[in-house]
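Notes, Module 5: Reading structure tokens.

Key idea: the token line is not a picture. It is a compressed description, and you learn to read it the same way you learned to read a sequence, by spotting repeated patterns. We will look at two proteins. The first is printed below with its tokens.
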Amino acid sequence: MSEGHVAQIWRYPVKSMGGERLDAVQVRTGGLPGDRAWAVRDEERGRIRGAKKIPRLMRCKARYPLSPTQGGGLAEITLPDGSRLTTHDPSAARRLSEALGREVTLWPLEPADRLEHYRRGAPTHPDVALELRSIFGLLPHEPLPDLSVFPREVLEFETPPGTYFDAFPLLLLTDASLRALQERAPKSVIDVRRFRPNFLIAVPPQTEGFVELAWLGRKLRIGSARLEVTIACPRCVMTTHGFDDLPQDASIMRTLVREAAQKLGVYARIAEPGEVAVGDTVELLD
């Protein structure tokens, strides 16, 4: 059964920075080649850190001048002032630190057995509930998400060792969900860039609501690739940050909590690699 077609493809060379749109991509078992192949490490904390704690990361953008391998390659970063550097630039750490307002270094993916590289550091807040609320952008009366749905390793590590993904290699989002959120938050600027999917899927215009939540546990064929939809994506404070022409807007999280139990989009893993291009049909298999 056809669910729609691929409207946009996104790849994010550096974790938490703005990404690049693609016309087509080869989906491999580890995800999109070069997706989140780089990350910054907070040298004050000594661990990998994303825009949940360093919001200015989202004001940077990254792209690959040449097609990357699965493990990445040289990426070009545009800083908030419009200046550029590459991930191989000897001054990259200094210039990024100046742009972000804290000392950071830039790291490629490390082998999965380098566990200390991926291990979680000390929290900002000693109170666990307060720490989680700051990460997810929640008010004291709003419920925390159910973390038991995540792979156990992400409770111990910042990202699954060997990757810089939050949990799974792909994030899917439909335009119906964006429309539904905009209808429920008419004063907010709802833009796909806030939600950082790999695939934005266009469904029939009459489709209403957060439709991809019905795909959990099912398989999709997208182009010649086959995906297994795993869990809904509980949204974090990153969706509320201001960057580019998008204003900071904490009310987006209030709407997500109230209208969608804080979830928007779904994670997926790759069941069968293949090529995906804009315009390809998205088919629900079972």
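Here is the second protein, with the sequence above and the tokens below, as before.
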Amino acid sequence: MMSVKIGMIGAGGIARSHHLPNLLKLGNVELVAVANRTAQSGYEAAKRFGFRKVYETWHDVVDDPEVDAVFICTPPYLHAKASLYALQKKKHVFCQARMAMDLQQAKQMLDADEKLSLTTMLCPAPHYMTVRPYVLQLIRDGLIGEVRHIAVSHPASTFLNANQPLHWRQRRDLQGINALDVGIMGEVLIRWFGPLAHVQSMGTTWVRCRLPDAEGRTEAELPDSVMVIGRFESGSQLTALFSGAVKGGRSQMAIHGSEGTITCFPTGSIVIVNTGEGDERVEVPEDMQGRWTVEQDFIDAIRHGRKGSPSFRDGVQYMAFTHSVITEIN
């Protein structure tokens, strides 16, 4: 089995909690090089996870001749630039969600990807991952009849405190068009129910001017709340609320059909089924639960010479959804 040598651009957040620990569990995978936001944090990541080299710039990680594959785990502002450069240097690419700053960048990434036989993959949304196989099987079995309406509610308090400094997820120079959970849920919705044929949306920014962040920025450039209505190509309807400025509530997705409703949640293994006789809480059987196998999936795709999943083409689809939503707001 060939060894895959990894270079990592950005080693915070999900890289530390998921990607790096899981890569270390795999056989014949070597952590070669890392570049983080500061040299000091890069050295800390190297000490903790065993990278042999620490670079001051992300270009140096890609340029390292030992590196076979690059993990890009920065905010979206660097996703396209680093991906395109890595592909140019003939390196396999794993890119963190959201795919890019905007739809145009996502299409550039896909265009470069399709000209090469290198492995590329996007990080999948963890939302509803555990219940997905079971819920989709219930739908295929006809438990709720024809799927007619999907209702998503994702309330959060991330931006609720007006006395907190500007959050980096409110900055267009770091996030592009990627507001709230719109893109990440776009991937989930399209994966489960197929493409959308029509989208309308409305957004609100409750607190536009905030205390300065570390770089002195104060203006919230992305909405605090987004409401979406739409229609899937299959004919099913969509209503969705994404908010970072409310207190209380629970994120959930309700799938309404002609014969019943299934309600599920972003985390956990419980679903609620109602086919006309009241709610029934169901624990998804372990053998029907989806698992986080992201890092193994990427390495396996490299070893088998194929594209990973979600693919860059999948990413363009959910970036198109995000584009439609944000364009309506603007």
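Summary for the second protein:
- The domain at 4-124+292-309 is CATH 3.40.50.720 (Rossmann fold).
- The two ends are 51 Å apart (CA to CA).
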